[in-house]
Amino acid sequence: MCFFVTMDLWIAIMMALLAGLGLWLLYREGLLRSRMSWFLAAFLLMLALGLRLAVFDYETLDYQNFLAHWCAFYRERGGFAALKYEVGNYNIPYLYFLAIFSYIPVRDLYLIKFVSVVFDVLLAWAVERLVKRFASGTARRLASFFATLFLPTVFLNGALWGQCDSIYVALLLLGLVLALEGRPRLSVVMAALAFGFKLQAVFVLPIYAVLWIRGDIKARHMLLFPLTYILLVLPAVLFGRPFLDTITLYFSQTGSIGSGLNYNSPSIFAIFWRIPEKDQTLASGIGIGAAFLFLANMLGVCWINRRKLSEQAVLGMALLLAIGIPFLLPHMHDRYFFAADILSLAVAFSFPLFSLAAPLVQFASLLGYHAYLKMRYLLFMDKGAVALIAAFLLALACFVQGIKGKTKKKKR
Q1: Position 1 confidence tier, pLDDT thresholds 50, 70, 90
Q2: Cα dihedral 95, 99, 102, 106 in deg (nearest 10)
Q3: pTM for this one?
């Protein structure tokens, strides 16, 4: 009993410190200029974190069948010393967290969720910094921060589900902001860290080709990407993990996404779900080809209009990638539009004309979340796919507006 009291106290202290971090980030951004703003921000932060704390005991099948066993594996085999073994289907950087948890006398479910909640706050900060590039008003920037924290999929993903999508998306957005702010080296490092945590970062990483076309990133800066990735996985190698197996882990894990065309995802395969099994390999190939064709065409448009690419076009393009690529690819899962959830929110606060994209993407994503968490469909996933098509068209309009009569760069 004493252990659980201590554990509750530990979590409460960590949440209070996290609220302090959130307030410091807002203060650093110049958004807390009055007593009322301090009070409101503190109240909203404590509310957001309190709601998360209220669902920390909730266990999903993902935790029961996978994460709990992986944490036990590290605890039973000496923490970091167990990094030499192959366990789980997460990449090495996230396994560092699981190894660290083995040394802490706190329930691993809480620790898993707490890490995600930390990145929820950093994700909100990243969104605010991105919106800052387009909206100077304090109220709108502050609203974007808290809208991110209270976004249903952000709340459900980490605090309830125990997933870690906020980690890679926060890093991706910070990388994008840093590139626009004229800090290309650190931007590439952030991109590599995002990729290191989650393979799904590849949906948005082609934005670096656009940043290169604009001149925000030089080719030489991209050398930092593999260097950062190697340094990121090097500790596991030092503990005995084979180097080649470690840096090629994603290639060996491609089979873990499943062979089905769709897994509760609002992708195109939610519309064309009656494809006979004998034709599914062909359909999968067509989807992959369509995704590459979409990407090539969009990069071609960016190259042709390279002198007119504004920061608005970059943001619009990032959202197009976050929606379009997983929409066309086969084998997508329910959480794979998390980056689109966040980027559509950033677009909504940056360019209110296209704000409808955010609820459309959120609707589509939540259908997948509901299907997994409740083990039944609220609506069939094809409804979400239609919503994503509408959101894609709004993102396309945002992108097109960004290359029409806009200056190439905003003053840094």
Answers
A1: very low
A2: -50
A3: 0.94
